[in-house]
Amino acid sequence: MSDALILGIDGGGSKVLVALADKRGRILRRSRGHGVNPMDNPNWLQELEQHLLPFRDERNLAAVAAALPAYGEVERLSVLQRDAIERLFPNVHRRVLNDVDAAHLGAFAAKPGILILSGTGSMAWARNSKGQSARTGGWGDLIGDEGSSHWIGQRALNLVSQSLDGRAPATALAKALFDHLRIDPSNPMNGLGDWASSVANPRADIAAISALVDQVALGGDKGAIALIEQAAD
Fold first, then answer.
1. Residue 210's closest CA among 168, 169, 173?
2. From the CB of residue 78, how many other CB atoms can be counted at a distance below 10 Å?
3. What are phi and psi of 30, to 5 degrees?
4. Who has the most CB within 10 Å: 67, 99, 132, 147?
5. H-helix or E-strand containing 31?
6. Which first-to-last residue range defines the signal peptide (predicted)?
């Protein structure tokens, strides 16, 4: 069918992107929402459905490819993810796979290679010439995710708190963080405590702080540079 359409779903810990495209790859419509990782967002299903429902009755929709975080890792959650896609799109070809597996397929066009991915979380995924896959990491922020943006953001918060206490040298990260969070620098404990107790999307918002670390590191701040080097290791 020459006018067949394909729906691509790129789910992650910080955001979900949905795009409707034709067979030539032209994007016709798209939607963006918050993260849909069932490991840390109790409202992941509602968030996913909210951004998929507008495409449910799309005429000429032939296939749906859903790259979802944590898929294939926890059986109970994987069943819920797969059921959601099947329920919303019962009459089209469907494929559900892990978001990092999808990233590998896209990066290497289904050929052998090793992908090291550092987003909100972190994971390495490899595929050989026989199509066999192996992975390391991807354990989530409570257990691992070393070197990820969340890992960097969390350690940046820790470094700033230590510098404010005098347990670590002063760092330009403090001012960058105060400006970013709109915190009064004269009362940082109140400001940071209020932010920490009311942040709407903790994983995504902490991960976003990693961008500040990059900026401050480029300015030569030793503490920020050390965090980036630790993340790389």
1. 173
2. 17
3. -150, 160
4. 99
5. strand 27-34
6. none
User: Across residues 210-215, what is the average pLDDT?
Assistant: 95
Query: In terms of pTM, does the model score above 0.85?
Result: no
Here the contacts of 38-44 (C-beta below 8 Å, separation 24 or greater) are 38/69, 38/70, 38/74, 38/77, 38/80, 38/81, 39/69, 39/70, 39/74, 39/77, 39/140, 40/13, 40/140, 40/141, 40/202, 40/203, 41/13, 41/201, 41/203
Distance separating alpha carbons of residues 170 and 55, to the nearest angstrom: 51
Is the separation of the CB atoms in 26 and 45 below 8 Å? Answer: no
- CA–CA separation, 40 vs 42, rounded Å? 6
Distance CA 151, CA 179 (A): 21
Residue 185, pLDDT score: 87
Rounded to an integer, the average pLDDT of 43-66 is: 93
Domain extent listing, the chain: 5-102, 149-232
According to CATH, the topology of domain 5-102 is Nucleotidyltransferase; domain 5 (3.30.420)
Residue 42 has pLDDT above 80, yes or no: yes
Establish whether domains 5-102 and 149-232 are of one fold. yes
d(CA 189, CA 195): 10
